[in-house]
C-alpha cells in the first residue's frame, strides 16, 4: 500500500483571502504593517507631547517650592500676598559665577534687591543640582516609555490582523459574482409561484436562504393584512345587514297598513329612528377606524386633566341614564389637581372614557353601580371603570378588543352596540403609548384600567 499526500491544490480547496482577492501575502503583510506603524506613531507623538507637559509642570513645581523656601529669608516689606509676591520696587535677577563653579549650573544664583535696600543671593543652580537625580530618573522613564513604539507597532499589527483578514475577504467577495444568473432566475420563478394566498418562496439554493426568509415574512404580512381586510368588510356588511333589513321591514309595513293605521305609523317611525341612529353610529365608528388605519386621524398633544374628563363623563352619564348609579372613587378636587395632567387630545381621551362607561352600563343590570377612579404615579395617570354586570370568561376577555366581536352572553343581554367601541378606545389609548388592563369574572363584573403616560 502506498501513501500519498492529499492534493491541496485542487479547485475545491479553500484559498486564503489574500489569494482569492488577487492580493499576494507579502503585499497584504506590508499593507498591514504600514497601517500599524501609522497608528503607533500617532500615539507616540501624543505621548511625547504629554511627557513634555509633565516636565514643564514638574519644573514649575520645583521652582515654586524653591521660591517659597527663599522667601522666608527676605526682610518684611519685600514681599506681599502672604509673602510670595515681590512688592513694587523689589527686583529679581539671575546671576552667574557666584557659586564654587564659576562656569557650570552650580554658579547660577537668584539676586533679590528689595526697595528698602540691600541684596540677597540664593543658590538656585546648586539646589537644582541636588534635585538632578530625580529629574534624571524621570527622563529615563520617559525615554523607556517613548521606546515602546516598537512593541506598540507589533501590538497594533496583532489587533489589526482580524480586520485585515476581513477586508481581504470582503475584497475577494467583491471581485466575483456572488449570485450567478441561474440563481437569480430560480428566485424569480419562486416569486412568481408564490403569492399572498400562498406565502412561500423556496428555491433550494443555500445562498438565497436569507432572501427567502425576508420575502416569506413580507408575504405573510401581506396575507394577514388581506385576511384582516376581508374580515373587516365581511363583519361590517353583516352588521349593516340587520338594521337595513329592519328598516326595509318597517317601510313595507308602512306601505301596507301605515297609511290608515295610526298605531302602525307611530311604531314604524319610532323603529326607523332607532335603526337610523344605530346605522349612523356604526358608520361613524367605521369611518373613525378607517381614518385611523390610514393615519388620517389628527391627534392634538396639549395638557389635559384626566380627572376632569372623568368627572365630565360621570355627570353626563348620570344625566342621561337614570337606571344606574354612577359613583366616584376619588374627590372632585381632582379636576384641579396637577397630578392628573397628561399630554393628549381632550376630545379623544374623553371618547375613550365614554366608551368604557357606556360598555359598563350596557352590560350591567338596572340599579347596579358603575364606579370610576383616577390614580397617578411619576410616569403615568390612570383611570378605571368598574361595573357589576355579567362579566366575561378568561377566553372572552382575550377577544373583547377585536372589531365586531361580542360575547354570546353580551348579545343576549343587549341588542345595542356595534362591537366597535372598545376597538376605538384601544386605538386611542395606544396612540398615546398607553395600555388597557382588564380584570373580569363571569357573573360578578369587569374592571377596565387605562394607563396614559404623562408625555
TrEMBL record:
Domain spans labelled Histidine kinase: 235-455
Keyword flag Transmembrane: yes
Any GO CC annotation of this UniProt entry: plasma membrane
Highest taxon in the source lineage: Bacteria
InterPro entries linked: HATPase_C_sf, HATPase_dom, His_kinase_dom, HisK_dim/P_dom, HisK_dim/P_sf, Sensor_HK_Regulatory, Sig_transdc_His_kin-like_C
Molecular function in Gene Ontology: calcium ion binding; phosphorelay sensor kinase activity
Pfam families named in the record: HATPase_c, HisKA
Catalytic reaction list: ATP + protein L-histidine = ADP + protein N-phospho-L-histidine
Transmembrane parts of this sequence: 48-70, 130-150
Cofactor: a divalent metal cation
Region described as Disordered: 1-26
Keywords of this entry: Kinase, Membrane, Phosphoprotein, Transferase, Transmembrane, Transmembrane helix, Two-component regulatory system
E.C. code: 2.7.13.3
Record's subcellular location: Cell membrane
Protein name: histidine kinase
Amino acid at each position: 500500500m502506498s501513501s500519498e499526500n492529499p492534493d491541496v491544490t485542487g479547485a475545491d480547496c479553500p484559498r486564503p483571502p489574500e489569494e482569492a482577492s488577487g492580493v499576494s501575502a507579502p503585499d497584504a503583510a506590508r499593507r498591514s504593517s504600514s497601517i500599524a506603524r501609522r497608528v503607533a506613531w500617532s500615539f507616540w507623538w501624543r505621548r511625547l507631547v504629554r511627557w513634555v507637559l509633565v516636565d514643564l509642570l514638574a519644573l514649575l513645581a520645583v521652582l515654586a517650592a524653591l521660591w517659597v523656601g527663599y522667601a522666608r529669608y527676605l526682610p518684611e516689606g519685600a514681599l506681599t500676598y502672604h509673602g510670595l509676591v515681590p512688592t513694587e520696587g523689589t527686583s529679581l535677577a539671575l546671576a552667574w559665577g557666584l557659586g564654587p563653579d564659576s562656569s557650570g549650573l552650580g554658579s547660577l544664583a537668584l539676586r533679590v534687591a528689595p526697595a528698602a535696600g540691600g541684596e540677597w543671593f540664593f543658590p538656585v543652580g546648586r539646589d537644582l543640582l541636588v534635585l538632578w537625580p530625580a529629574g534624571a530618573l524621570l527622563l529615563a522613564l520617559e525615554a523607556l516609555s517613548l521606546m515602546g513604539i516598537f512593541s506598540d507597532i507589533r501590538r497594533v499589527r496583532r489587533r489589526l490582523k482580524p480586520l485585515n483578514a476581513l477586508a481581504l475577504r470582503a475584497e475577494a467577495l467583491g471581485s466575483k459574482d456572488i449570485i450567478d444568473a441561474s440563481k437569480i432566475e430560480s428566485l424569480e420563478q419562486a416569486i412568481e409561484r408564490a403569492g399572498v394566498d400562498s406565502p412561500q418562496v423556496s428555491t433550494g439554493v443555500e445562498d438565497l436562504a436569507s432572501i427567502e426568509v425576508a420575502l416569506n415574512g413580507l408575504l405573510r404580512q401581506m396575507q394577514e393584512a388581506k385576511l384582516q381586510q376581508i374580515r373587516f368588510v365581511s363583519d361590517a356588511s353583516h352588521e349593516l345587514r340587520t338594521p337595513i333589513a329592519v328598516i326595509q321591514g318597517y317601510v313595507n309595513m308602512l306601505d301596507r297598513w301605515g297609511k290608515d293605521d295610526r298605531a302602525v305609523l307611530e311604531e314604524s317611525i319610532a323603529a326607523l329612528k332607532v335603526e337610523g341612529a344605530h346605522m349612523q353610529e356604526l358608520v361613524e365608528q367605521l369611518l373613525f377606524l378607517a381614518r385611523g388605519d390610514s393615519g388620517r386621524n389628527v391627534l392634538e398633544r396639549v395638557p389635559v386633566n384626566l380627572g376632569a374628563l372623568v368627572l365630565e363623563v360621570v355627570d353626563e352619564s348620570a344625566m342621561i341614564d337614570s337606571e344606574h348609579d354612577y359613583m366616584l372613587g376619588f374627590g372632585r378636587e381632582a379636576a384641579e389637581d396637577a397630578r392628573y395632567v397628561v399630554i393628549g387630545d381632550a376630545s379623544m381621551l374623553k371618547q375613550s372614557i365614554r366608551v368604557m362607561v357606556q360598555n359598563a352600563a350596557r352590560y350591567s343590570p338596572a340599579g347596579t353601580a358603575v364606579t370610576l377612579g383616577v390614580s397617578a404615579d411619576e410616569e403615568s395617570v390612570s383611570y378605571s371603570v368598574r361595573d357589576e354586570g355579567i362579566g366575561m370568561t378568561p377566553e372572552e376577555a382575550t377577544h373583547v378588543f377585536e372589531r365586531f366581536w361580542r360575547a354570546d352572553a353580551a348579545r343576549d343581554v343587549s341588542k345595542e352596540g356595534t362591537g366597535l367601541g372598545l376597538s376605538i378606545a384601544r386605538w386611542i389609548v395606544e396612540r398615546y403609548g398607553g395600555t388597557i388592563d382588564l380584570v373580569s369574572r363571569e357573573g360578578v363584573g369587569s374592571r377596565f384600567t387605562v394607563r396614559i403616560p404623562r408625555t
